[in-house]
Design brief:
By secondary structure, the protein is of the alpha/beta class. The protein is built from 12 helices and 9 strands.
Amino acid sequence: MLIIDGDYPMAGGAIRSQRDLTLPIDQARAAPPDFTESKGRPDSGIMATVPEMRRAGVAAAIVKLTGCILRDGHPHGDVRTDELSYAGAHGQLAYYHVLETRGYARMLDTRGDFASHMKTWSEAGSRDDLPVGMVLGMEGADPILWPEQVHEWYENGLRVVSLSHYGVSRYSHGTATGTDGGLLDGAPELLRHMDSLGMILDVSHTSDESIRQELDNFSGPVLSTHQNCRAITPGERQIPDDLLQRIIDRGAVIGHSMDTWMLYREGVDWANIPPRRDVFPLEAVTLEDYCDHVDHVCQMAGNSLHSAIGGDTDGQGGADGAPYEVDTVSDYRKVAEILDRRGYSQEDVENVMYRNWQRFFEKWLPE
């Protein structure tokens, strides 16, 4: 069975940690000692490389550009200035383009690109040399320095944008700012430009009030690349049922994150996240917990057309931050086994594993 991963911040992790993600995963995990640590994320925990994605049947992923600006009171930022945010995101864009040039990736800019790519993967006898499909998203819109600049990013292939990441972004409140802060100056105009281009809004990492205002100001397609359910796991990073129902009603697909902080039922203070192992052992969060979130969305929707995989692959800390049974992306297929045991039909399982994302992008990417 194929898999589509709704969230893989590939370039940021590769560049910051100096990882060669074209290697088989055992080789990538055995990098020289000088390159084994970056922000506490050792190479030994890498969950995805291109060869591992091929082996796992991960036909495509929403890959990300990031460039959060460091601001007073919100120390999560990656860079210090507008210029560095813009340039850093372009460096990540260049990373994806060179992967495509060398045959490791295929950028899926249009619905036709997506359909033909999925046909190739579905019909291939061997996937050893296939490019992995990539839909380009931006996680936190700081690299869009002014609203009209989103047209330039669109011409460069950007199709999915979330206004927030951690802290207060240029355009809205995000994770670690509570739930009440809303959109900031410039956001309504950015959303209007996104609407005019037919771009897709990602509500992940965004405060409750910001999501409400986004949905009031944006009429285009909506998704959540990596989000879980607050009804199961408390905390501002998860989406509450009222907003979940609103985006389901808008036709959204919700990619469920493999980040165990978003699955640990005791919750966490998202403004002060401690080391995981100081709080719970690896075995405390399993794929059964993960599938509870999948099932919650399916039950709310009354069908299996809105839940999907949203791995947050390697963005959540690698294998140490994933559910107990997950070592690499190849283990994502275990979700299908659990859903099957829970009585989901083959069609329902395929919807969650890849068909919901496939239908969404074959509908909403430009012609």
